[in-house]
Amino acid sequence: MDQSESCPECGVPKYINNEHLWLNNGDLVQRREARHRLIFIESENLDPLFRNIEQIIGVPVEHIVIASVRRVVRLYLSPSIPKGAKELILKKEIEYTVVSNVIRNIGRIMGYGGFELLDMRYEQDEDDYCIDRITDPFSLLFACASQAATIETLTDCDQGVTYEKVSPGIYNITAFPSPHPEELKKRMWLDYYYHQDGDMELERCATCGGPKALSAYQWHPDRGVIANRSTKRRMVIIGPQMLDPVFSELEAELGDTIPRVVVEAQRRFTKTGFYTMEDVSDEWDFRTQLALRGLGNLHELKIRRRGLRMRLDNAVLPLMIVGMMQGIFDAAFDLDSTVDWELSEEGSLEIEITPRG
Fold first, then answer.
1. Between the ranges 91-95, 157-161, 177-181, where is the mean pLDDT highest?
2. Domain residues for 159?
3. Do residues 77 and 153 touch, judged by C-beta distance below 8 A?
4. What distance in Å separates the CA atoms of residue 68 and residue 80, rounded to the nearest whole number?
5. For the residues 243-247, what does the mean pLDDT come to?
6. Could you tell me if 341 and 350 are in contact, meaning their C-beta atoms sit under 8 angstroms apart?
7. Final residue in a domain of this structure, among 223, 254, 285
């Protein structure tokens, strides 16, 4: 089947619904490995978030982002690669590009941007390299990590990565054999997801069975872009574990103030107007949108000028959600606020926002 072939009713590439499951509790998982949770989110939020974090703490985080994302992409790709195909690559009985081109096409469907192989050497020694050109990456750092992860998945060889800007929106990314620091390997973690039933059922497309709400988005597989038809916001499907280990590693290196830094960085981005009160004013629609994004199951949302209270079960990316809600509240009522939150062991996130002073 052509990976970019779309459902005639909702217009969503069949690959998306063949490879992913939207569950009844606001969760999105990989169909081949249901322990891997995913999210479908606005990608234009990501690079500004990391820039804000760097600005607040005065320390670059690029190497931490690439290291954690590389690991998670490798875990996502591994179940999709037939064992026999990988063995043939390692034995050099089939061309590496036969499989890597399929992965590039998958990346386009997931919203990663347009990947094109420029040059490579694969002789299984330290002089190997692979140069890809990426056009319109949803995130440059994530694109670098994804290229390294793809090669690691197919060759079992750790990769380093560099990038060079060719022109606006176009970069050359070079991956090469490079062992990863042992201390970083030990600190990086990945929690597996275990499903718990909920009460959130998304309306389904009668033809393909995927969420009907996905018809609000338009796929451009040739460009590697997914866009909201009405807001024009760009979307991407990634694993939340691409982000949570970044925050945990920052906390390990820089201290326990990092969670508040992440919340503040997200609040600042939200106050630019990217997210607004209009996004959350209809509680049922907001609940549907959170579930469509795989962010969790909304059970309570009360917003008044005197404060905001929210409860989200099965929550992922809690720090980003807290910062987003605080930014929306502050912008809507033109004030400064304080925020407190608690995440239970079962994944229930409770947020309390009150005006300052």
1. 157-161
2. 1-183+194-254
3. yes
4. 20
5. 80
6. yes
7. 254
Which ranges of the chain does DSSP label H, i.e. alpha helix? 14-19, 46-57, 62-77, 83-90, 96-109, 140-155, 182-187, 244-254, 258-269, 283-292, 318-333
The first and second tokens of residue 205, run together, are: 């497309």
Residues 164 and 310 placed together within one structural domain of the fold: no
Q: Are 283 and 291 in contact (CB under 8 A)?
A: no
- The pLDDT of 142-153, averaged and rounded, is 92
pLDDT tens, position by position, 19-38: 999 999 899 998 887 778 89
Does the pLDDT of residue 262 top 50, yes or no? yes
Give dist(CA 19, CA 30) in Å, integer: 6
Q: Locate tokens 């619904």: which residue?
A: 17
**Rounded-to-integer distance, Cα 131 and Cα 147, Å:** 9
Instruction: Say what the pLDDT of residue 1 is.
Output: 46
Angle at 288 between CA 286 and CA 289, to 5 degrees: 65
**Cβ distance 3 to 104 under 8 Å?**
no
Q: What is the DSSP string of 275-341?
A: S-GGGTSSHHHHHHHHHHTTS-EEEEEEEETTEEEEEEET--SHHHHHHHHHHHHHHHHTS-EEEEE
Distance CA 261, CA 273 (A): 20
The reply to whether 342 and 230 lie within a common domain is no
Q: Is the residue at 114 inside a domain?
A: yes
What's the predicted TM-score (pTM) here?
0.89
Q: Using the 8-state DSSP alphabet, how is residue 111 labeled?
A: T
Cβ atoms 265, 49 nearer than 8 A: yes
Separation CA 103–CA 118 (nearest Å): 15
